[in-house]
Amino acid sequence: MKNTENLEEFYEKNKFTYIPKELENDIGHFNIFKRGNSKIKPISFNRRDFFKITLLKGKIKVDYADKSFVSEKYALMFSDPLVPYSWEPLDENQSGCFCIFTETFFHKFGSLRQYPVFQANQNKLFILDEKALKDVEKIFEKMFEEIDSDYAYKYDVLRNLCFELIHYAMKMQPAITTNLKTEDRATKIATLFTELLERQFPIESPYQRFKLRSANDFAKNLNIHTNHLNKVLKEITGKTTSELISNRVLQEAKILLKHTPWSVSDIAFSLGFEEPPHFINFFKKRAKTTPKKYRDL
């Protein structure tokens, strides 16, 4: 897997000659594009340092994190810097559109990470029926109209349209019931834990190492007692601190096994295991197969 693709590389690779001036200033970056109506090349499995919402039209195979799906006709996909993804067109009738934006674009308008579509281990691909397709197309059409307008506050409108897509997708799936408490402090602790965990990813080099590996490590960094951290996370997520850490490490292990040529020993080291057998036992217990067999699937 290559290093994370940045905005400049995205524009250069896709031969887009115009990079809006907003790329350089405090409001962040936003732009929108058509996918075209001809053959579309596959996108290689990689992370990007920007967010993306894509309307995919046509039969297409999508891979993100350690998951793989085939969309037969229409889908709405959410991409973010934490999760690598790729797609492969399976027919020639490909079209659609997409918008890209940086986290800075929403800096003063809420945290994108609070929404499940931009969290690790959450659903990022939503299959659309004909009615949903029309609804989503209308939102994108408004984006195209707005970005070409002279309205002084058009980027506020564009943010609202992004939020509209986010909420439209989330309403398509059943709500996940949790024991979320109303206390702000508990919610803040869970949010800080997630941010601290995700900040250690992606692993982009076998010399990079995952350091915070235990509940005690996280509790020390958050300046709270380990038991309190465990209690808060269990109440809010239904999982223990160790389970949350292990699940994220397992996800990264699957990504590295499938999309890098690194040896099992290198992967074990980068994920913080002292010895390769410890990693193999960890992986086998949770994935029900060995790292080598998983890589060869």
UniProtKB/TrEMBL annotation:
What's the superkingdom here?
A: Bacteria
Q: Where are the transmembrane segments?
A: none
- The residues covered by the HTH araC/xylS-type domain are 187-297
Task: Report keywords, A-Z.
Answer: DNA-binding, Transcription, Transcription regulation
* Cross-referenced PROSITE patterns: HTH_ARAC_FAMILY_2
Extract one GO molecular function annotation from the record. DNA-binding transcription factor activity
Instruction: Write the protein's name.
Output: AraC family transcriptional regulator
